[in-house]
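Most newcomers find our protein records easier to grasp once they have seen one. To make this concrete, we reproduce a full record directly below:

===
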Amino acid sequence: MDSLLSRINPNNIPRHIAIIMDGNGRWAKHRGLERTHGHMKGVEAVRSVLRAAKNTGIKILTLYTFSEENWNRPEDEVKALMNLLIKTIDEEKDNLKKDKVRLHILGDMDTMPDKPGEALRDIAGETEQNDDTHLILAINYSGRSELVHALNTLSLTEPEKAGHYTEEDIHRHLGLPDMPEPDLLIRTGGECRISNFLLWQIAYTELYFVDTYWPDFGEEDFYRAVLDYQSRQRRYGKTGEQVDKEVGRTNED
C-alpha cells in the first residue's frame, strides 16, 4: 500500500473524486448473507476511502449513497439502509470533527424520512466549520431531478431570461454550485454506467470502472484509481499537441 501511495504524483492530484459505491448486495449474496450485511460492510469501505483521500491530499469526495430510484427496493432493505445511515452518522460524527471533515448533503432532503433527514442536517451543521476535507453524501439524489429543479427555479426567479438561459445560470441553481466538478468518477461492482449521477457535473470527468465490489474496495484500490487518472491526458476538446504545448509553457514559467 505504501509503495502505491509513494508512486502518486503530488503535483497532479484530483481535487474532487466522486464514487458510485456499487456491489454491496452482490457481495453479500456471494457469501450467503442478507443484502444488509453488504451495506454494513460497505461502511468500512467508506472509512478506508476517506483515509486514502486524506493521505493523497484530495479535498473533495462525493459518495453516491442513496438514489431516488433506491426507494423502489424492498421495503425491509430501505428501512435497514435508513437505520444504518442514522447509526453510522452517530458513530462517525466525532471522527469527522476530529479529522476536520465537513459533511455536505446533495439531494432532496424535503422528502427524506424525518429521523435520517434530521440526523443528516444535524451533522452537516455540526461540521460546517471544518475545512480539511469535504465529504459530500448524495442521498435521495437524482441527476435528472437536480437539472429539472434548476430549470424550474430559473423559470420562476428569472422568467425574463426564458429562452436565453446560459450554462452559468443552470450551474448556479444546482445542489452544490460552489463545489468544483469531479476530476475522477470511480464506479465499483463491474457495471459500466452512470446511473443518473451528477449528469451535469461529469461532462469532462475521467471515468474509472472496476470489478471490485464496494465492500472490498480499500485504500490500495483507491490509489490505483488515482494512478490511472494520472496516466491520462485531459484535453477538454483540444488536441493532445495543444495540451502538451500548454503544459510545456506552464513548466517553463
User: Anything to note?
Assistant: The chain has a mean pLDDT of 94. The radius of gyration is 19 Å. The chain is about 45% helix and 15% strand.
